[in-house]
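P.,

For your records, the input lines for the assembly:
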Amino acid sequence: MRALVTGAGGAIGMGIVHLLLKRGYDVIAQDVRTSQLEETFATEITTVPGDLMKEEDRKRIAQTIGSDSLDCVIAAHGIDGSGSLKEVDADFLNRVLSINAVTIPLLFELTLPALKKSKGVFVVLASQAGLVAEPNNVAYCAAKFAVVGWVKSMAQSMAREGVVIRAACPGCTKTPLLYAAQERFAAAEGVHVEEFLKKRLSKIPVGKFAEIEQTASSVVFLTERGAKPTIFAATGGEVLY
Amino acid sequence: MIDLFDNNMEFIQKLKNNPLLVKSHTILWRLESGISKPFETYVLDGSTRIIAYLKEVFMNKDQYQGVLTTIVWADKPKDVWEQAAMEGCWEAARGIVQAITMEYGAVDIRLNLIRVAEDGHKELIETLEYLQSEQAAFVAGSSIDLKEDF
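Structure tokens returned:
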């Protein structure tokens, strides 16, 4: 079985690669920088460095995939987009929306021929912020809501082609990206970050943030064939879908 | 009316001439079929434009008090790629309206969203009139989807 993971060098991306390897996949791991992937996984994986926004880098991914099939593609790339309405500007919006949203249909188009060969699964790592909006997070919400909408529509259209499309919408996961965002949220509300974290935790019914392995497993769960939800929210109960 | 993509459609003129709506504050987000990069145009360009406008509005709240309705007007999509891009855009619009409503509240400016497709002019007018009315004072951050499924 063969898988492509984009954003594989991120915290959740690395967790996904680890789980896919345990399941016996041959993994192609893409990220802007792949040195940490190479240090961690050595020859167990094939790495493809590059920027998904650049056509020449996407071509490199296509060349690495070659003419063989792909059983799954996991789009785990993304950047933090937190910030108040007052703070956001055109450059920031462009960056957040491009990386977090525009690249998804581009990646799907690129990998569709390989997915069709195996009737594979395309999974997007979206967010709970793509289901229920958050204050001081308009750019990120716009991008993640867009991805969820795209997935719902394209999933129906591609069903007749035998290609499955799903989105994982996890909640707060203990990653550097989360803590950076929480610091910005705290600053936007004018409170200390520890106070903000305490308040945030009180809204999560399970009472804690997710471990990386837990979120990675919720994504990999969606790569399994058979009946699975198109949109899967694993949020600790903070967002119910 | 703010026309995000300067579409200047005939129905915009009809809305502007409607006496009940002449004082309404609306944004038109037109999703035109047949363009080369639909997802990028609808979602990236559209979101960037509307967020920039809403930032201007909320940074100058005193000048813009009242109801502000965004109309997402979608052509019939030509293929599944356009259809998915339009759905992505509608959801992006929902996320934007919801996020800003949660960030700023809805006391001074009440944001709402309507989606309409072809032949939806009558329903759009009725919905806009409703949103302007006192009966709709509790409708905030809402998405009203008038589009028939293709």
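Two observations worth noting. Chain A touches chain B at residues 84-86, 88, 90, 93-94, 97-98, 101-102, 105, 109, 129-130, 132-139, 141-150, 152-154, 157-158 (CB under 8 Å). The mean pLDDT of chain A is 95.

Regards
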